[in-house]
Automatic annotation (TrEMBL):
This is Unannotated protein. It holds the Pfam family ECH_1. GO terms for molecular function: catalytic activity. Signal peptide: none annotated. Gene3D superfamilies: 2-enoyl-CoA Hydratase, Chain A, domain 1, Lyase 2-enoyl-coa Hydratase, Chain A, domain 2. InterPro entries: ClpP/crotonase-like_dom_sf, Enoyl-CoA_hyd/isom_CS, Enoyl-CoA_hydra/iso, Enoyl-CoA_hydra_C.
Amino acid sequence: MTSTPTQDVENELLASLVNGVLTLTINRVEMSNAIPYYVRDRLIEHFTNAHSDLNIRAIVLTGAGDRHFCTGADLRVRPTPPTLPEGAPDFIVGSAVEMMRSGFQRLMESMQDCQKPIIAAMNGTAAGGGAMLALAADLVVASDTARFVDVFASRGLLPDGGFAYLLPQIVGMHRAKEIVMLGETISAPEALALGIINRVVPGDELDSYVREMAERLASKPTKVLGWAKQLLHSSVENGRSVVLEQEGLFVELNIATADSQERTAAMREKRDPTFRGF
């Protein structure tokens, strides 16, 4: 395990902003779109910044090529370890916990907490941490040849990065245990039936389909979408009284938005509203 000699993060994670849609493309085809720590950290940065960037109205996450969406962490590339004081052991108690918290767990949370809708465009296999990225997205559109693979148990590893937190919410507990314990490859149509994927389209139509969906989302009242996302996530973890209290708060906050005023004006003037995302 050595540090990478070059870190070309700008080329390994492509980013473009067009018509309010931020497209993030994992561009490591030769490594099956596995991501090293510095690409992971740049993804976290993008999702965190997008939360409050008014120019970004929707996000698309995809992989380069047509074989792999993302196959998780590239563990062949490690950051330079810190210098230890004399007498310290090579493994420090708590370091593994911190590595998880600051790594894929943080990436998952940055996606779940981002107020902008995130579409995962699964152009190929999503495995390990890459499967987590699909679970953490708000919507998933897959090519008809895409696959969803939980590789953790077959490699003697515990599901990490929030995988075990997200999966039962989407497929139910018994299905989640089947996926985790058996580790069988799930085809795109099977993932659609399980609720992991929202749409399956031919591979040559994936980009155009996702672009149209993302631009539709980008034209909607962004604050409303973000608050709705937060409410839906809260409903899984909190009781009725908490969720209803949040609902009332967000309804009141929405009244003060420019998009709410535009909605009222459009109704009065009998025209379609033009939302600006604030």
